[in-house]
Known about the structure:
Elements: H1 17-40, H2 44-67, H3 72-88, H4 100-106
Helix pairs in contact: 1-2, 2-3, 3-4
Amino acid sequence: IEDRGEFGSLDPLRSRPETVARARATGERVLAQLSEVEAAATDQSIRHRLQQLRTYVEYFILFHDFRAAKDDAARQAGLQALSDYAAQHADDSLGVCTSPEFVRWRLRV
């Protein structure tokens, strides 16, 4: 993340509620499309890759929710949700879910 700013080390422009809402809506549409493709996929390697994409999109929906937090309690809850998600997907070998500790360190509030 290269958008160092004054709001929790994140760019305030990208943390605006309308930006976050748009990201969430887009992410949910992508997840719906992934579900359709997953249902039709028969090749296990394709299904595995689609699951990786799902993990990536789900993580970034949570990330945008964290960025939209309006107070410290909401930021802490968002950070906990990201950390929990990373812990649940630690074995997925994806950069977004490296470890709950890294998530907490990187997004320290």
